[in-house]
Amino acid sequence: MSDAPALEARPEGLKSWQLALACLSLALANFVVVLDLTIANVSVPHIAGSLAVSPSQGTWVITSYSVAEAICVPLSGWLAARFGAVRVFLTAIIGFALFSLLCGISRSLEALIVFRIFQGLSGGPIMPMSQTLMVRIFPPEKVGMALGFWSMTVVVAPILGPIFGGTISDDWSWHWIFFINLPVVAFCLVFALRYVARFETPTVTRPIDYVGLALLVVWVGALQIVLDEGRNADWFASPFICTLAVIAVIGFAAFLIWELTDANPVVDLSVFASRGYSVAVAAQSITYAAFFSAIVVIPLFLQTNLGYSATYAGYATAFIGVMAVIMSPIAAGMMARYDVRKLITFGVVWLGLMSLLRTGWVTQMDFFTLSLPQFLQGLGMPFFFIGTTSLALGSVRPDQTASAAGLQNFMRTLAGAFATSLATTMWERETKVAHENLAGLVHPLPQGTGFTPDQARMVLERIVQTESVTLATNTIFWGCTGLFALAAMLVWIAPKPRSGVDLGAAH
Hints:
Elements: H1 16-38, H2 44-51, H3 55-58, H4 60-72, H5 76-83, H6 85-104, H7 109-123, H8 126-137, H9 143-171, H10 176-179, H11 181-196, H12 210-229, H13 239-261, H14 275-305, H15 310-317, H16 320-334, H17 340-358, H18 367-377, H19 381-393, H20 401-439, H21 453-490
Helix pairs in contact: 1-8, 1-9, 1-11, 4-7, 4-12, 5-6, 5-20, 6-7, 6-8, 6-11, 8-9, 8-20, 9-15, 9-16, 9-19, 12-13, 14-15, 14-19, 14-20, 14-21, 16-18, 16-19, 17-18, 17-19, 17-21, 20-21
């Protein structure tokens, strides 16, 4: 038996309107999976109050989903090779719908956490499978545009998650943050069965790598819990976090050794042998970490300093998706005509400039000053996201597409988790540093201002704290600017594509 599945005759292509419905079903399936990473974030107080648990216990609703999804995403290549990409995708969205329903009707925290774990396990394969099937159903000349549309769901969904979560929890009930998945998944299932099912990928029977699977579960699960719960537990001051960190490091080392030497690894790490793929994934992960740091910090800044509610802070950040959606087809159409490294560099540099623009933010900002960089940032996002995705998938063999897509999504998801933890931790630390520095520069209010001494101290403390948060936010943006610069330079380590990136090869 061959180690790689043989290529089979491709079925007849879809008509334009059929292709549009198939594309929409795949993109929306990916959208709801990514949406569920953030939709519960602002709903934790509602969930905790409804189930009579503490908010710290309620955060496991978020952690359980992200851990399960992170474990399952890198398994996508093995699942596709063993069962077929279409079968895995259809099974995953059915499972996702079922466990979304069970999450919504849960009446205890224990049940909700269990169902969220299975929802994450079901959602994990959907991201790389939808990406793989996008490449498979579209003719080569349209693959770039399809991936552009798919990529925007990855960018827009985390932004819309808190908006939907806050609005639904405030106006309806937290149960509906799970129920809203059902009609979307039903649409995806109907049209995927109708138009995508015929594009099944060839399969091959391989032994199950139980050791590799166990090591993957151990190190990814431990690392994800460290990232999700570390800040709440004061990081390495907690024996629990220290233990998990050691388990993650040892487990990762053992996993690498086993997977690189096993004859039938559960995760195909050989895709990293391609310099183009490795560079593209690294550049995308670094850029996404910087991008996601801003997504995390900006709403916190708006709510802490400018008095925005969680919902309106989400509205303010949502402008980022407008220009991105408009520019996606333009960026996708340029991928085959120009050196993709130049397009990626333009996108990443543009994101860096928008981050640099934010380093001058002040406490008295108006809405226009806040939203303008958000709106303009969308111009560069498609060039970075579509470009790195195109370069990555175009740099591997056809039989490695599913594995490459799975690992790419895993690295990006992990980068987002690292960014969330590090950005919030650094933001709090920089706020304390700035507070200490500013406190030494403040002079007492002069007499005759109408304040008692205690009132005057409170006024000064509030001013110092507000300005400290603003300075800390600007520091985070300086760090993001540096990461964007690093990613822009890293892209040029990739070999020059012969004539753009031939995504048709991924068929």
